Amino acid sequence: MFTRILKTLAVATLVLGVAQAASARTFITIGSGSTTGLYYPTAVGMAKIVNEAGIDIRANARSTGGSVFNDRAVGAGQLQMGISQNNVAYYAYNGKGVEAFDGKPVENLRGVAVLYPETIQVLARKDANIKTLADMKGKRVYVGDIGSGTEQDVKNLFGAFDMSIDDLKAPVRGSAGSAVGLLRDGQIDAMFYTVGLGASAITEAAQTAPIELVSIAPEKIEELNAKYPFYTRIDIPDDTYPNMGAATAVTLKAMLVTSSNVSEGAIYQFMNTVFHDKKDAFYNDIANPNLKKYFTLDTALEGMSIPLHKGAVKFFTEQNIDVKESLMPAS
Predict the structure, then answer these.
(1) H or E element at residue 120
(2) CB 104 within 8 A of CB 71
């Protein structure tokens, strides 16, 4: 009888221990973007690294509408992390700049790390005779989804040319992945695609259709930078895509965001695993060449547009990376 009681207690203790271990595990869903862009493989790759590391975090990636959705969903607790353009994160945190956030700041949004430059790539069919943004007047152009970060970028870029979306024959909406197909099939004349260089959707379209990159004049980029510090110049090399040549473009930064509601320990453990202990996998096993080309801890705060999460502050401080006072979280 006594022996049976001891065995029962032992089993109960084991079950309780397993239950407590399971409850201590943090579950993180990372919002990405379209499966045709670079956010998605980046989020999938980071989740895989975390899951294979044997730490107290389980992660998965979710395909979403991109920056605006991710920032809102992180703020609402529907996502624990997300990838976002740095300007959209700024708009979200401050409650202005994009209609989705006007008067509705995402006050619990926090920064984790800046990942890589994200270029506003302007693509046009060669038979559309578009050599500058001014040539888009009267054309069918994809301008991003309604209320998206891309739409705001297009409005800002057109402003430098004294244009507006109303000058287009037809402003086309929807997903960027679908728009690439429309461009390839000749159903639109041009499009704006804010994505890392070397995006597979653009590469595939360039192999089967007469598409070229449209450059933005350096003086126009300087004008934009003076008004919107997020925008800087980047030169797209001529070997980035087949048969498309080189171009001068505007770039933003892709960054990882989270919520202040996620624990300091979880964010620190995530970062220490992905950006330190398993950094080789981060560089080599994720299908995004921009990470290996551009990401370093020394530059991971360049372009950070919102306050950091406490776990990120702990990680960067431990790595001897200076954290500016302006990036310190209020709480």
Answers:
(1) strand 109-125
(2) no
Secondary structure (3-state) at 282 = helix
Q: How far is CA 61 from CA 45, 88, 173, 258, 270, in A?
A: 9, 20, 25, 14, 14
Sort strands 190-195 and 109-125 into parallel, antiparallel or unpaired: antiparallel
For the chain, which ranges sit under pLDDT 70?
1-24, 331
Phi, psi of 153 (to 5 degrees): -60, -45
> Using CA atoms, how far apart are residues 249 and 233, in angstroms rounded to an integer?
6
CB 267 within 8 A of CB 310: yes
- How confident is the model over 261-312, as pLDDT tens digits? 999 999 999 999 999 999 999 999 999 999 999 999 999 998 899 999 999 9
pTM for the full predicted model: 0.76
Return the number of other C-beta atoms located less than 10 Å from residue 260's C-beta: 19
Cα(30)–Cα(80) distance, rounded to whole angstroms? 6
Tell the residue number behind the tokens 């202005």, with chain if given: 96
Phi, psi of 330 (to 5 degrees): -70, -30
CA pair distance 160, 222, nearest whole angstrom: 10
pLDDT tens digit string along 139-168? 999 999 887 778 888 999 999 999 999 999
